Amino acid sequence: MTASLEREDEGAVDTQTHPRIVRATHWINALAMLIMVGSGWRIYNWHPIFPFHFPVMFTFGGDVWTSRAVHDEDGLAGAIQWHLLGMWILVLNFIVYLAYGFVSGHFRRDFFPLRPRAILKDFVAALRFRLAHRLGQYNAVQKAAYVGVLAAILLTILSGLSIWKPVQLQWLAWIFGGFDNARIVHFCGMAAIVGFVVVHLALTFLVPKTLVSMILGKASSPAHRERAP
Fold this sequence. Notes:
Blueprint: E1 4-7, E2 13-17, H1 20-46, H2 64-71, H3 76-104, H4 106-111, H5 116-127, H6 140-164, H7 170-175, H8 179-206, H9 209-216, E3 218-222
Antiparallel strand pairs: 1-2, 2-3
């Protein structure tokens, strides 16, 4: 989700642009997450970690009644197939995005430096509804959120691999404290990603031009002027 800002002159326009590779990986990632979360919730329901279940209507794994009639289970086999499909899409897409981010300088240019004081300042401003948004420029809270969700995706992938192959990748399972702890880490990573998506969609609703740029590659708006304190 790289972004560049063009300022033609003072008070003219803010322009946000996204290269094709960023837009492609963004939407592929969204599809992979939808598959992973939906199928993951069905798998979770089969052997829950916490004392609750996800509504079946929000899960992937095939029709429950058909699965019960044919396989004598609630769609676990189908959910696992969907989950593995989503996993490979996510992993390959994530590798492409990371490679582009490092090689192009996107991470260095758009996400860093990341200073705790700046994050706290912008977070307080956001709570007071005084945090300005400028197309093509991330505030400290956005930077922290993007870096955080990338870390959550990586952690979820690694913990998922240790759950999928606990014997072949026993060293990885050991890092997470064993199979059961890896499941908890995997669930927490999923929860962090879903939380990010909810906030991300809410902010997109408030600033719809960010969606325009992610679809068409470019969007402009009147340049933001800082208000005097």
